[in-house]
Amino acid sequence: MGKTAEAIAEGVSIATAAARLAVRNHILMETIAHDEPFDVTGFAPYAHDTLIALAEEQEAAAALAKRQRKKAWGKFTDPDGTHDYRDRDTRNLRKRHRQYIGVAKELRRVSEDPHAVRQLVEQARDAAWGDVEANLQRRLQVEGMRPDLDPDYERMRAARMQSLRLVDLPRLAAHRRRGEAPPLDVAPASPSPRAAGVDLSELDA
Asked: What are the C-alpha distances in Å from 116 to residues 29, 39, 186?
């Protein structure tokens, strides 16, 4: 029973982490993509439904393990594959059934506990805001970095210049051919060597 309890606790931990990830993604989608305000009570139903869905997955797995155990009962021939169980596997299948049922029962209990659901939503919110903060910091570091302070400037310069030649310059040339205003702030034309209507001498800067 000790090992079964440990397996159930581990299964609940994994399922809770999956629920937290799902709620975090939902929070990001609603608050950022749909510009909705964050409210714990507003996300609680989604967290509850996520826990119930995970519990149902565990119950389905338990039902499958039970069917497999019944099918394996009394079979002593060599198996044909990984999931072709035999009589010697019935003990492990019985353990799996108990573990799946135990995890499902605990997830349903958590889903009906308002405090536990609120805690799950708050943890998911903290994870979501952590992602947003990390993304903002990375963007600020990139946009605020000076060449003399960027240790990777020289190494990445060739890739940036290649991207300019292969992507930005053809796009600029296409805009000019259509007579549209260029999307980039381009300096006036000069007699320097040109390609697609762009001064290539500026690429050496």
From this structure: 22, 16, 57
At residue 1, the pLDDT reads 47
CA angle 132, 136, 140 (to 5 degrees): 175
Identify residue 98 by its one-letter amino acid code. Answer: R
Distance CA 51, CA 163 (A): 46
- Owning domain of residue 165: 148-181
CA dist., res. 50 & res. 30, Å (int): 16
- Same domain? For 90 and 163 the reply is no
Residue 140 confidence (pLDDT) above 50: yes
Tokens of 179: 């007579």
Question: What is the average pLDDT across 153-172?
Answer: 74
Pair 63, 78 in one domain:
yes
Contact (CB, 8 A) for 170 and 196: yes
In the structure, what pLDDT confidence band is assigned to residue 151 with cuts at 50, 70 and 90?
Answer: low
Spatial distance between the Cα atoms of 39 and 1, rounded to a whole number of angstroms:
41
Most confident of 27-31, 83-87, 121-125, 149-153: 121-125
- Is 200 part of any domain? no
Per 3-state DSSP, the chain is made up of helix, strand and coil in percentages (nearest 5) of 75, 0, 25
